[in-house]
Amino acid sequence: MKLGLHYWNYSAPPDPTKIAATLAETARVAEQAGVSSFTVMDHYFQMEQAGADQPMLEAYTTLGHVAAVTERMTLGVLVTGVPYRHPGLLAKIVTTLDVLSGGRARLGIGASWYEREQRGLGVPVVPVAERFERLEETLQICLQMWSDDNGPFHGRHYQLEETLCVPGPISRPHPPILVGGGGERKTLRLAARYADACNVFGTTPADVAQKLDVLRSHCEGEGSAYDRIEKTVLAVRPVLADVDAFVAAAGEYAALGVSEIAVMPDRHPVEFAEQLAELVVPRLAEEGTLRTACPPSAKDATAACGSTAHRLTIDPSAVGSGSTLRIPARPAPPARQPPDGVVQRVRVLLLHHRVEPCRRAGRAGQRPQDASVARRSTGLASSHSRASRSARSWTRRTAASRRAW
């Protein structure tokens, strides 16, 4: 089983200027500990039980930020509300995330339920039955846009004249599609028909077993293979409140065929990720339940994951012994300062370009000043005198040009 982290709360720390750094550090710590997936909610208002006026970020923009600071974790929304984005644009958004993350995107999608935020922000609220019709058409459109068929799509709710998606996703044959929700009549049927994965609430192993039995029956009715669908669970109880109970439940979920269980922070997210690494990951590894992005049994996680960007070293003999996993902070990249004279030279050239008549550049088929910069790029560090001469020359040309104009 793989372990996922579902980042649902942006209220800690309370200072909005620290949200980005906290999000990034949480993702880095989780990935270094071996967490395999990182997901966020698709809400614009925080859920009412946590306070609708609490901080909330747009999901796919947030995942773009996470993609830039991670290397291995699968990234997705748990789950995308179908009314919030036109299907053609959604396919492009997920494709963009997949390309920029190096093939790590997953499309999680569902019918949506939070009508307060829809009404509040002017999103049309449609009946539940229509939401599921739109959900199915959205799945069809995404699959068509991720295929070789660039032709039109004409459905009941959506009409697209050209399903062009260039570049295509890096994931092959396309980003995995996860249908989220435990609705036995419609949601799980759509999962059986279209999805590569499903997600249900992990209330109890017995409840999950019931949902999976329904999924199996839908697969038989649809003529699809039950075993090809990855079964994932969102743990709804605080993991750190009772680690023993969580580890025991994870073992039962694994026996049911669940391949991923996502957990949610119940405290400061960086602290949660660190304690997840220290208290939960070793226990799951000891039980033989956990399959990580960087296996805890690997002495050098760099070799196991094919990454040289950061190294997590774990003593195999310490796994499960209660020892603390030492997760080093990612070193900050060295500051890059331009050589002396570069800034002044560039300013001069930009100003020169703005006032120089366009016909001079057109005769040569290029901008002479750009070619000059390219040829002398390695020697700009000592170009103070040339910059000064150019500045004086620019002043004279500017005056002459203004008189001519």
Walk me through what this model shows.
This protein is an alpha/beta fold and 405 residues long. It has two domains: 294 residues, Luciferase-like domain (TIM Barrel, Alpha-Beta Barrel), CATH 3.20.20.30; 63 residues, no CATH class. 44% of the residues lie in helices and 12% in strands. It has 14 helices and eleven strands. The strands form two sheets. Strands 1-2-3-5-8-9-10-11 form an eight-stranded parallel barrel, surrounded by seven helices. The protein has a two-stranded antiparallel ribbon with strand order 6-7. Strand 8, helix 6 and strand 9 form a beta-alpha-beta unit. Helix 3 crosses helix 5. The longest helix has 21 residues. The chain starts with a strand and ends with a helix. The relative contact order is 0.11. The C terminus is likely disordered.
Draw up the topology in text:
Layout: E1 2-7, H1 19-33, E2 37-40, H2 59-69, E3 74-77, E4 80-81, H3 87-100, E5 105-110, H4 115-120, H5 128-145, E6 153-154, E7 159-160, E8 177-180, H6 187-194, E9 197-202, H7 205-222, E10 230-235, H8 243-255, E11 258-263, H9 269-287, H10 301-305, H11 342-355, H12 358-364, H13 368-375, H14 384-404
Parallel strand pairs: 1-2, 1-11, 2-3, 3-5, 4-5, 5-8, 8-9, 9-10, 10-11
Antiparallel strand pairs: 6-7
Helix pairs in contact: 1-9, 2-3, 3-5, 6-7, 8-9, 11-14
